Amino acid sequence: MPVPDQYGFFIDPTRCIGCRACVQACAECDTHKGTPMIHLEYLDRASSTQTMPMVCMHCDSPTCAEVCPADAIKRSEDGVVRSALKARCLGCNNCVLACPFGVPKMDSDFDLMMKCDMCYDRTSIGKKPLCASVCPSGALFFGTPTEIEQQRPRSAPVNRFQFGAQTITTKVSMMAPRNGRLPRIEVTECLYDPATDALDRMTASLFESEGM
Amino acid sequence: MATQPAATRDILEHFGPHCAYAVNGSGAGPEADRLVKTHCCFCGQQCGIQLKVNGNRVIGFEPWEEFPFNRGMLCPKGVKRYLQGAHPDRLLYAYQRDPAASGGFRPLPYTEAIKQVAAAIQRIQTQYGNDAFAVLSGASLTNEKAYLMGKFARMCLKTAHIDYNGRLCMVSAAAANKLAFGIDRAANPWSDLISAEVVWISGANIGECAPITTHYIWQARENGARIIVVDPRITPIARTGDLFLPIKPGRDAALFNGILHLMIEHDWLDHDFIEKHTIGFAQVAEYVREWTPRRTAEITGIAERLIRQAAEWWGTARTSFLLHARGIEHHTHGVQNVLGAINMVLASGRLGRPSCGYATITGQGNGQGGREHGQKCDQLPGGRDITKPEHRAHVAAVWGVEPNELPGPGVDAYEIFRKIDRGEVRGLLSICFNPKVSLPDNAFVGRMLDKLEFYVAIDFFLSETARHAEIVLPGSLHEEDEGTVTQVEGRVIKINKCVDPPGEARQDWRIVQDIAAALGRKRGFTFASPREIFEELRRASAGGTADYAGITYERIEREFGVFWPCPSEDHPGTPRLFEDGSWNPVARGQGRFYFPDGKARFHVAAYAPPAEDVDSEYPIILTTGRVVSQFLSGTQTRRIGPLIDQYAEPRVEMHPRLADRLGIADGEWATIASRRGSCTLRAQVVTTIRPDTVFVPYHWPGARSINQVTIAAQDPISKIPEFKVCAVRVFKAESAPDDEPEE
User: Do B616 and A202 touch (CB under 8 A)?
Assistant: First the structure.
């Protein structure tokens, strides 16, 4: 049974709290137990708590499949790009290098390219992907375009991406804020200024006592 | 006497913590033969979850999308909670301390262990008096167990000294809510959040400590709400909030007073509400006159323009919801901080209506129910007061004893340890509490455990505290028993049993009843099931503020939980408190709040600096908290491999401005030292924290425990310890801490 047409997968990084419920849930799948296929990373923890979850975008013309010398990567009629077929995959890593979103991983334990297949075992029987089911922030959402339009008025889905000369359209959408950029907060710009002077005084006295 | 019986390394080898993992690889594991609808065992959100069970083993989870609070959503702890079952560290037998045994404890038959416990209790109480034996209980227990622990202490042991680890959690909020509203519960269901115009979040790291609430906040924002976050750190929820106020730890009351000052100055007040439904406003208005924006900025360390902006948004909103958590409560002025927040809410008049709300975000699994039914030192079931004659009479009648047989109020959990120091408490029974990790200045706690003549711990794993016990009784995991808990909104929900306790382990309520029987005091402790305990709890709570009389197991399942107060079976329950025309047993129609005149109370929220302010010797503020992958003292979550892998070790967060001055680079070892102790951890250098403050999560024991450093100063009213602020020095460590595990 195919993944129902009316459902889409939407990623909204502004909502992500980095809790990794998606990663922990993905690793529960019986086909790759213990190995999550979803990526979740801090963009730059030194300056922000912003995290970014990344599932396979399920491209309409998947680059991974195009570069595969063994024709091991199949896109099903419902638009889901599947992990490499075990019988065909050479483990050559072409797909890993070519994917513009950096999604597929070479799993040496399995000797196979593996990636997010939108929980095909769940979505093909009417369930949601496990990551989108558990995500407590709504950063990962599986539902209809009508639901997303009603529930997310501040942002709009985008599924057309430009990588140099390459234009890619995808089954999965990224939610982009409608009114431009989000403000970036700096702690030091939010302080009452003399408070930072106090820090200088305090730490100065600390260094004197340390003889530094 | 009760020092650890063997070297820590030896104990660790036998009792863990070891990390449990699922068996990795492809291919289907065992099939689930049933799915059990229940709730997560961890925080106060109590998310609905379905556990997959095969035989007598929990093997995984499925989302429970019909449960309305979380609709299938979970945090990583919920996803991996199933790994605590069938764990190699699970206590399968009763144990007796035995330095000659490997691991320091030898198994002994359960019945023999119960006999020894009863004999020790009898000996200590005969020799030193009933109050020389104390009970420490916990807020992760079901309502039934919490109720039974209170009854056991008062009626069976006849000791005044029972308290619980909610003392480290939400007691400041509880005390302030009772002072202001006469009742201690979230005023609104979370569904009121999503349509509020302004959501004010003070001292609540929602993304990590109450992850499911995030969805409500973001939905409010989608609907146009402005999100104001007050926190010393840019937490995940603060990152994309609309206004961030990086408050200096320990200054919350100052900020709330400053906001109220501006509300009064600009007449952003609901005069009609203040007049009709409150008393005490004039006095508070007089007090906040001195809290000018300039002074508020100086004290709180927040830019004045942000304080003005926050006041304007809050002041001019038509609807709003104020949330707070431990960030404003873990203070020697925790009650004052909460009163300050409540004053802002009362002055706005935005309470008791749809989209107009106020709540503390309860932390522990049964943080709400665990603080209602009599395991607090000054409380009887139904939120009743142990000092009030009519309250004592009601509960005594349910228990079939004379009111004068009930002991008076006891002391708080930390004071119980001071009583051990003074020789006034000689014996201890603990359940669901790991104070050697969770209490401040925990070197003192360890010494006090060593000083006890007898200590018995009921636990499912050998916690760091239980290692000091003479006898350890094997209790039950969450999934091995049924019962009710009351989650963050005040919704009473049902925990369902998935599996039987393994080996000689048994349900905690059975263990407590076995002790009562061995003491020859069976009367009142012959319940055959949690349901029977709940039926008595309903009667004991009837007529109290936390009235469960109309709640049944069947209704809970049918209605996805029932909100107390619910005085009769035909009563729908009370999702939203303080509504116009609402009736309560204290006001009896006089008004919506739980006082005889029906009016809420403004209280002056007096600001004072923290118990230990910074000085030239200890110039940096330490604040502590949690990470999303661990829960409280970690007894369970430090045994779940994938959660440990997510965040393996506590790190000390510091701003690069501070790190540069200290000569510490990201990932280097840094020592945090206070007047109590020190702790050496890797630095995490981030711009997301105030430069005068460092942050460390507290879930770890021994050498990695930041509670070696924290201060045991307590709020005079709520007795909550000041975990959120003390003074430290931070310096680069010459080398990694000693490899030898000291925990």
Answer: yes
Average pLDDT in chain B: 96
* Interface predicted TM-score of the whole assembly (ipTM), two decimals: 0.96
Task: Give the span between the Cα atoms of B483 and B531, in whole angstroms.
Answer: 7
CA neighbor of B635 nearest in space, from B515, B403, B478: B478
Within B159-210, residue ranges assigned H as helices are 171-181, 206-209
Is the backbone peptide bond immediately before A69 cis, with ω within 30 degrees of 0? no
Closest CA to B440 of B709, B627, B689, B629: B709
Q: Cβ(A124)–Cβ(A1) under 8 Å? A: yes
Decide: pTM greater than 0.90: yes
**Minimum distance, in Å, between the CA of residue B730 and any CA atom of chain A:** 9
Residue pair B467/B54 in contact (Cβ under 8 Å)? The answer is no
Q: Which two tokens stand for residue A9?
A: 């997968």
Closest-CA distance of chain B to residue A69, Å? 25
- Which of A20, A49, A152 lies nearest to residue B76, judging by beta carbons? A20
Contacts of B429 (CB under 8 A, 6+ apart): B117, B121, B133, B134, B135, B136, B455, B456, B457, B458, B515
Residue appearing with tokens 């701003």: B655
Name the pairing type of β-strands B198-202 and B162-164: unpaired
Decide if A48 and B234 are in contact by the 8 Å CB cutoff. Answer: yes
What Å distances lie between residue A100 and A62, A72, A81, A166, CA to CA? 10, 18, 14, 9
List, for residues A175-211, the tens digit of each pLDDT value. Answer: 999 987 777 899 999 999 755 565 666 556 555 544 3
Local mean pLDDT, 10-residue blocks, chain A (212 residues)? 83 97 94 90 96 95 94 91 88 92 80 84 92 98 96 95 95 91 86 68 54 36
Q: Which of A47, A109, A154 sits opposite B687 (nearest CB)?
A: A47
Summarised one tens digit per residue, pLDDT across range B214-266 is 999 999 999 999 999 999 999 999 998 999 999 999 999 999 999 999 999 99
SS3 (DSSP) at B584: coil
Distant-in-sequence, close-in-space partners of B291: CB < 8 Å, separation ≥ 6: B254, B257, B258, B260, B261, B607
**From the CB of residue B88, how many other CB atoms can be counted at a distance below 10 Å?**
11
User: Would you state the pLDDT for residue B363?
Assistant: 92
DSSP string of A43-111, one letter each residue: S-TTT---EEEE----BSS-HHHHT-TT----B-TTSPBPPPPTTT-----HHHHH-TT---EEETTTT
